[in-house]
Recover the amino acids of this structure.
């Protein structure tokens, strides 16, 4: 299949997205504990994840009579479902058969068409692209200029919540969040950006090294929201290469430790991908002189999984 032609967004796109997002979503909290990094709690979004930013931005540019199709491991689908409901748009969300039960249950609460297919995100993405080819607008979770710009609005909130030099640490799957924050950071000279992947699926690091998408073996991981191969030709590869200062990986033990830390130290619930950035900081992998802000990017974890993590001694 030929690569989709996707426009690469620029910082001005993030400015436009900011007008859309701030009109609907209140800023998420920035918690600064006595010790450790500050936490940007995207878990407090109405869908439990930062993905609603990009979905609102993308669907704001879609006509009322147009049909939107997307593929998602869960959180982007919830964002699209929320935005479609809020803006009165028609949407189909395709999820893989192994999608988190918590995210699937949440999706069923919205007035969107939900399709489950295949056994991986790649299967869902391929099916969604087939559906879109019949006359719908495909909204990628990451390889879309409006989605990327929307995720970058997190940076504008940080600009209002912080002052001075900053190191922002965020999870990286498809790279939409890192690309968006990177576009915002490109307008500043005092922001350092660190991206964190699951060691079970280092697809962005492989792509950045090669200069293009490289298939990697995706292993089982608690961080299911960032465990997938990239769409060939994704604009996020070059954006991450240009704007992300460092890419790190975290292990399953480190992800478990981060979830337990959020629960025990702060009473906060996060999913595996949502805690990936904190996992890297707690493991001592983020070395920086400037104050650190960790993006806690999502909370949608199935309760049985959370229970296992909190009661296990995974190492």
């Amino acid at each position: 299949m030929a690569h989709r032609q996707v426009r690469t967004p620029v910082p001005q796109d993030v400015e436009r997205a900011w007008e859309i997002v701030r009109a609907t979503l209140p800023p998420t909290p920035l918690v600064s504990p006595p010790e450790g990094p500050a936490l940007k709690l995207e878990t407090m979004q109405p869908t439990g994840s930062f993905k609603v930013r990009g979905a609102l931005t993308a669907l704001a540019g879609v006509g009322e009579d147009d049909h939107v199709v997307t593929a998602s491991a869960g959180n982007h689908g919830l964002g699209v479902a929320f935005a479609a409901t809020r803006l009165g748009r028609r949407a189909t969300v395709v999820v893989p058969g192994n999608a988190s039960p918590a995210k699937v249950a949440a999706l069923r609460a919205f007035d969107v068409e939900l399709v489950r297919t295949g056994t991986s995100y790649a299967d869902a993405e391929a099916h969604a692209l087939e559906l879109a080819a019949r006359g719908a607008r495909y909204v990628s979770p990451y390889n879309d200029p409006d989605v990327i710009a929307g995720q970058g609005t997190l940076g504008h909130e940080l600009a209002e919540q912080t002052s001075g030099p900053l190191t922002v640490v965020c999870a990286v799957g498809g790279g939409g969040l890192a690309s968006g924050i990177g576009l915002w950071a490109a307008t500043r000279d005092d922001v350092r950006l660190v991206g964190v992947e699951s060691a079970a699926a280092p697809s962005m690091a492989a792509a950045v090294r090669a200069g293009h998408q490289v298939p990697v073996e995706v292993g089982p991981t608690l961080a299911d929201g960032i465990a997938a191969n990239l769409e060939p030709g994704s604009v996020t590869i070059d954006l991450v290469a240009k704007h992300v200062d460092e890419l790190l990986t975290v292990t399953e033990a480190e992800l478990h430790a981060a979830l337990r830390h959020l629960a025990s130290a702060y009473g906060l619930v996060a999913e595996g991908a949502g805690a990936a950035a904190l996992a890297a900081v707690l493991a001592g992998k983020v070395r920086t002189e400037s104050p650190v802000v960790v993006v806690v990017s999502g909370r949608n974890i199935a309760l049985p999984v959370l229970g296992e993590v909190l009661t296990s001694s995974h190492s």
